[in-house]
């Protein structure tokens, strides 16, 4: 059995060329990495955190939506939406939906005062912030958006989002009631086709909502196709989970016997957990589709060895210097990731180290591009090697503060001298010129071919 697993592992993750087709191999690797992510528990922990935040913010969130929709005269659509969302809970879902709506209707925003209204808005925004943090974690983005941009995005989603959703539902209902559409429904073939399409509308709405979240919320540029594929995976999983959970609720009479009156709350929390887990699962699918360089056997955030750091650091500096000398467009972080095939999180460590030593600098463009911080002829290759070797060192943990036997220090000193004597005084401009010459020779085609 172990030999069989080793063969499978070699076929899927081996360095040599796999007998599987590239697309099939990529799908297999994606499935295995997603399974590993679910097993490691990071997605489940994030989903549980979102459940807790949802329980705190669902009433304030719906109260704000209720206020906005009331101004447009469509506030009576909140109950049907809740009933549809909680339909897998059966009769218990109807009870929860009616309780939430009654609570919202009794809430008088006018008597809350400035402090109460501010807390209401903050509680609603906290859910959006938690969603962004979870998606940023999946996309390996350590920095959130600026506070002002986050606030404007959250408010736009809270205020405009409900209007767009209910407008789409209203337009769909109006179109289905138009006399021309009714006449078309009377025709057997067209009627069956339209009915089949109408059954797909819930899937299309969920897929559209998931795709919008994957594009709009993460603090990075998410391409449409990966977001759509993640939305399709999440939408199908959500609809399937609703059917499976409804079947589970029907056969879960023992929960009422064990938890008594709390059974409704327990089932509601489980359903919320499944929804958030599916949302994060779809985001992971979108991430791995856009960044296949993260598809490797270990899972998590890849770390580069010292040898890889030197290789990537020199490649980065050679690419930057070569384009700078040739007057070409300078590369961005995403372009580095695509050209070098290095995961973005691991690449940022090297770029930050080179930037801290003032070897490269970022522009003010959006997204920023990288350029030499000074003339490439004034940057030696040895400086680049030393910088990437020392990347991540802190003042409290550095070679100077780490005692070692004298023979070890002597040996490391000889290694450093060997590197310097081998590289000599080669500058970054010379390295980039050699790379340009090699590329030019590769483009030359012999006349006899």
UniProtKB/TrEMBL annotation:
Q: How does it sit in the membrane?
A: Multi-pass membrane protein
Does the keyword section mention Membrane? yes
The UniProt entry, under Gene3D superfamilies, shows: Winged helix-like DNA-binding domain superfamily/Winged helix DNA-binding domain
Query: What is the name attached to this protein's record?
Result: Ribonuclease BN
Keywords, sorted A to Z: Cell membrane, Membrane, Transmembrane, Transmembrane helix
Q: Which Pfam families match?
A: Virul_fac_BrkB (PF03631)
Subcellular location, record wording: Cell membrane
Spans traversing the lipid bilayer: 50-75, 109-128, 154-176, 196-217, 224-250, 256-289
Gene Ontology cellular component terms for the protein in this record: plasma membrane
Superkingdom of this protein's organism: Bacteria
